[in-house]
Design brief:
Elements lengths: L1 E3 L6 H10 L7 E3 L2 H9 L7 E3 L20 E5 L8 H9 L9 E5 L7 H11 L5 E5 L3 H7 L2 E4 L9 H8 L3 E5 L2 H10 L2 E3 L5 H16 L8 H4 L5 H14 L7
Parallel strand pairs: 1-2, 2-3, 4-5, 4-7, 5-6, 7-8, 8-9
Helix pairs in contact: 3-8, 6-7
Length: 252
């Protein structure tokens, strides 16, 4: 059996799948339906693939009200040039320049080899006092400082962990209708939008989406709707189905 937690829809990723996964018959566990679609496109039989979301447990925080006049948005993720920090910052500095009471908080840190990405980000935001780099922080602390999370990566994510964690901590979410994050945004009641190909059009789209969010779009879903998608029982059922497909004993 194989578990796939990445969505690498590029020449290297497709090569690895075609030569090391597609020719065989073992079952494959995918982190999202977006990952499943990529694997199928690379030659893996759909009947071999079982989608399993992560398990979340505990008591979610009640949704927090938004103040449209003083919105504080967070971008959370590895600072590596692909998680959307720079693009959201550019949207803030251009098409949202009139939102003087809004704030953008950038969270995450780079690996040592990615320090250049952080230096470029800090240079880009240095002249806008509304935008602050906050470093690596636990999500519980982030949730105390912001109103919503934005998921606008430069490449599709295998799963939308940030919108899910945001919902769990009572935050609104907004992002691209793209990759595994789109699935999570739909489940948690986030606001999603199409990702334009043109770079300038993306800045406009991000700006419009954030303004729509401030106007009340993207209302968080209820616990009764969200939690069953990420329950321990659902994960166990998925594992049972995989074991059965592999001809192995069931687990209880």
């Amino acid at each position: 059996m194989l578990s796939v937690h990445e969505l690498l829809d590029n020449n290297l990723g497709n090569y690895l799948v075609r030569f090391f996964v597609a020719p065989f018959s073992f079952p494959v566990q995918a982190a999202s339906y977006a990952v499943k679609a990529w694997l199928v496109g690379a030659g893996v039989g759909a009947e071999r693939i079982f989608v399993a979301y992560p398990v979340i447990e505990g008591q979610p925080v009640s949704p927090r009200p938004l103040c449209a006049e003083s919105l504080n948005i967070a971008v959370v993720g590895r600072v590596n040039g692909t998680k959307g920090h720079s693009e959201v910052a550019r949207a803030f500095r251009t098409y949202l320049a009139h939102k003087q009471q809004w704030r953008l908080s950038l969270y995450g840190s780079p690996y040592v080899s990615q320090r250049k990405e952080l230096d470029e980000l800090l240079e880009e935001i240095k002249d806008d006092s509304r935008i602050r780099y906050r470093g690596e922080r636990p999500f519980g602390e982030i949730a105390q400082e912001v109103d919503a999370v934005a998921s606008f990566p430069q490449k599709p994510e295998s799963f939308g962990l940030v919108p899910l964690e945001g919902w769990f901590h009572g935050l609104r979410s907004v992002g691209w209708r793209w990759g595994g994050a789109a699935e999570v945004l739909r489940i948690v009641g986030g606001l999603d939008c199409e990702r334009p190909q043109d770079a300038e059009a993306r800045l406009v789209s991000i700006s419009c989406a954030l303004e729509e969010l401030s106007c009340g779009r993207g209302v968080p879903a209820t616990e009764q709707h969200v939690l069953p998608h990420f329950s321990r029982e659902r994960r166990k059922q998925n594992t049972r189905e995989m074991l059965e497909a592999a001809g192995l004993p069931r687990i209880e």
